[in-house]
Amino acid sequence: MQKKEFLYEGKAKRVYRTDDPACYIVEYKDTTTAFDGLKKEDLVNKGVLNNSIASLFFAMLHNEGIPTHFVKKLSEREMLVRALQIIPIEVIVRNVAAGSLAKRLGLTEGTPLNSTVLELNLKNDALHDPMLNQYHVQTLGLASAQELARMEELSLRTNELLQSYLKKRQIILVDFKLEFGRFKGEILLGDEISPDTCRFWDAGSGEKLDKDRFRRDLGGVTDAYAEVLRRLLEVK
Ligand code: UDP
Predict the structure, then answer these.
(1) Which residue, 11, 71, 10, 70, is CA-closest to 211?
(2) What superfamily in CATH does domain 87-220 come from?
(3) Where in the chain is the domain with CATH 3.30.200.20?
(4) 171: nearest Cα among 191, 199, 193, 196
(5) Ligand 1 mean position to 197 CA, how many Å?
(6) Is residue 57 helix, strand or coil?
(7) CA atoms within 13 Å, Cβ hemisphere of 146
(8) Which one, 84, 167, 181, 198, has least CB within 10 Å?
(9) Averaged pLDDT, 164-181
């Protein structure tokens, strides 16, 4: 697989074409951002950790029947993925109240939710990722009703699979963000699943093992990511 021209740079990743038009190479950067990119820092090795963590999650989900863009891990920082047409909707899945949900609904962070909460956000930093409902999705023409239903179905199933996988590793899956895209008439799970896009709490101590360490200046960001990777590799 030959790496061809640079296509796109996001906040945490770069995307390149390959000699196969149906595949892209994603390169994970050390850059870490929060608050729509206002807070930004390079954290040594973060990209390497996230590429490893996301590759393990995608491989597990693939084995459990979730269609994802992941093809294989190519190197420390690179993964080969299917060339998706990205749908600009972030699907947020929540099991425990935290972050913006805790603020918006006046819930104490850490309160378990009685049922799983799904939220849709428009992927648009300039507008601060506003929340969407199905009517907004329809009027903006972002996805068909059928596509949205499929994205929601895959998100809920992914939540079940990730929750039980992480529970075995003493990690509580508080919430996370997914993105999807179209590929040959199918909806595939795209983007990444990592401590940048999920909230992971240690099941014993409640210690944060995710990007909240960066957002809230708690320190030890990459040590926490490395601990997540260690636990994923430890339990087979
Ligand atoms: N999230 C993300 N990208 C975003 C917004 C949220 O990866 O642009 C993730 C975030 O890491 C958390 C979950 O989605 O795991 C819910 O985030 P929340 O809405 O609470 O927003 P935040 O508190 O991160 O601003």
Answers:
(1) 11
(2) ATP-grasp fold, B domain (3.30.470.20)
(3) 3-82
(4) 199
(5) 6
(6) helix
(7) 4
(8) 167
(9) 98
* Ligand 1 center to 18 CA (angstroms): 31
The token pair that represents 167 in the structure block: 């529970």
The per-residue DSSP string of 65-96 comes to: T--BSEEEE-SSSEEEEE--EE-SEEEEEEEE
Looking at residue 236, what is its pLDDT? 72
Domain 3-82 in CATH 3.30.200.20? The answer is: yes
- Nearest 10 degrees: Cα torsion 59, 231, 32, 163: 60
Closest atom of ligand 1 relative to the 35 alpha carbon: 25
Cβ-based neighbours of 144, under 8 Å, separated by 6 or more = none
Q: At what angle do helices 221-234 and 46-63 cross, to 10 degrees?
A: 30
Model pLDDT for residues 190-233, shown as the tens digit of each residue = 999 999 999 999 999 999 999 999 999 999 999 999 999 999 99
User: From the alpha carbon of 174, which atom of ligand 1 is closest?
Assistant: 15
Of ligand 1's listed atoms, the one at least distance from the Cα of 123 is 8
User: How many angstroms separate the most distant Cα atoms in the chain?
Assistant: 51
| Pocket lined around ligand 1, Cβ cut-off 6 Å | 90, 92, 98-101, 129, 175-177, 197-199, 211
Compute the mean pLDDT over every residue in the chain, rounded to the nearest whole number.
Answer: 97
Cα–Cα distances (Å) from 41 to 115, 146, 174, in that order, read 35, 39, 24
